[in-house]
Specification:
- InterPro entries: Cupredoxin, Phytocyanin-like, Phytocyanin_dom.
- GO terms for molecular function: electron transfer activity; metal ion binding.
- Keywords: Glycoprotein, Metal-binding, Signal.
- This is Phytocyanin domain-containing protein.
- The chain has about 190 residues and is α+β, with helices and mostly antiparallel strands.
- The chain has a domain of about 100 residues: Sandwich (Immunoglobulin-like).
- It has a 4-stranded antiparallel beta sheet with strand order 4-3-6-7. The chain has a 3-stranded mixed beta sheet with strand order 1-2-5.
- Strand 1, helix 2 and strand 2 form a beta-alpha-beta unit.
- Helix 1 packs antiparallel against helix 4.
- The longest helix has 27 residues.
- It is elongated.
Length: about 190
């Protein structure tokens, strides 16, 4: 009986580990400042403090009368060129789910805003872990590129994007830890 219970708990731990990779975190670009030119937000520094993964959602929150969001190539990001965007978002609360590895470059196309620093490079690196999920043959992930497109925006409202993602991840980690302890106790 103890072996059956231990096997059940181990199965649950594996399932929760997989769920954690599917759910993804929410990242509000610029945190409480949002997507703006006011307040000298350093988006390069903001992105450097985050770890982006597949399935994460990037939320651009801004006043749509004064800003927008364009996904662009690396060359266009560096030169603040807005003439050939990969995608354009303008709802004021754009949620973009990361679906592939590599750099995702975004900028504000309002004249002067990109030059003033309203641009961000979201870099999603491959995780080299034995527990990391691998793409299936039926649903392969696109290969990394410097200008990888994202899904179109949704109208999801996110007020506490960072705390929600962290809370979900912390809760799953605590559940997994509890299950591992329970399996150990039951197997002794």
């Amino acid at each position: 009986m103890k072996k059956a219970v231990a096997a059940l708990f181990m199965s649950m731990v594996v399932c929760l580990s997989l769920m954690e990779t599917v759910i993804g975190a929410l990242h509000k670009v610029g945190d409480s400042a949002g997507w703006t030119t006011i307040g000298n937000v350093d988006y390069k520094q903001w992105a450097a403090t985050k770890t982006f993964k597949l399935g994460d959602t990037i939320v651009f929150s801004y006043n749509k009368q004064f800003h927008n969001v364009m996904q662009v190539t690396h060359a266009d990001y560096r030169s603040c060129n807005v003439s050939a965007p990969i995608s354009t978002h303008s709802t004021g609360n754009d949620s973009i789910t990361i679906t592939n590895y590599g750099h995702h470059f975004y900028l504000c196309a309002v004249p002067g805003h990109c030059q003033a620093g309203q641009k961000v490079d979201i870099n999603v690196q491959r995780v080299s872990s034995t527990l990391a999920p691998t793409p299936s043959a039926a649903n392969p992930l696109p290969s990394p590129s410097m200008s990888s497109p994202s899904l179109p925006p949704t109208s999801t409202t996110v007020n506490t994007a960072n705390s929600v993602g962290k809370a979900a991840s912390s809760t799953l980690s605590l559940i997994k830890l509890g299950m591992v302890i329970a399996v150990f106790v039951l197997s002794v």
